[in-house]
Design goal:
Blueprint lengths: L5 E4 H6 L1 H7 L5 E5 L2 E6 L2 H7 L2 H14 L5 E9 L2 E8 L4 H17 L4 E8 L16 E4 L7
Parallel strand pairs: 1-2, 5-6
Antiparallel strand pairs: 2-3, 4-5, 4-7
Helix pairs in contact: 3-4, 4-5
Length: 150
């Protein structure tokens, strides 16, 4: 990072966001709330480098999007031309939960319109994930929960 990280109270950010969005190109800011660090403000290019590029950022964004779905256990990712094939892993899903998953997939496509996505759902139905997928042949395995499956 080019300069020293500066401390920025969230109240200052609210009152002068445009100015700080210009300054963040030169240096990151630690945003504080009630005197405690809460977030880091970095420019998008730097964020993309840290997250492994825009493409990998999309995968981690999807992981975050599906983390709110209780039944989701993990995502298994392989890279395809211009994007990703993403397998959402769960033991079993009811129809309402499937709809929530489809909504998260749509949301990801809206956030990253220049990437190609091929979404799949893998319902384990009590079986080990390795019965379906050899994890050494995938590009990314990202647990959504601490213990993704039994």
């Amino acid at each position: 990072m080019r300069g020293q990280i500066k401390i920025l109270p969230v109240s200052d950010l609210r009152s002068n966001a445009t100015n700080y969005l210009e300054q963040v190109k030169e240096q990151p800011f630690i945003i504080t709330q009630r005197g405690r660090p809460r977030a880091v403000l970095v420019d998008y290019e730097r964020y993309s480098q840290m997250a492994g590029g825009v493409e990998d950022a999309a995968v981690y964004t999807f992981r975050q999007l599906v983390s709110e779905i209780q039944a989701m256990e993990a995502i298994v990712v392989t890279r395809i031309a211009g994007g990703y094939s993403i397998w959402a892993v769960a033991d079993q899903l009811d129809e309402a939960t499937r709809e929530r998953l489809y909504d998260r997939e749509w949301e990801l496509m809206q956030l990253y319109p220049d990437l190609n996505f091929d979404f799949h759902l893998l319902e384990r139905q009590g079986r080990d994930l390795e019965e379906f997928v050899t994890l050494k042949h995938v590009d990314l395995y990202l647990p959504v929960k601490e213990k993704p499956y039994a």
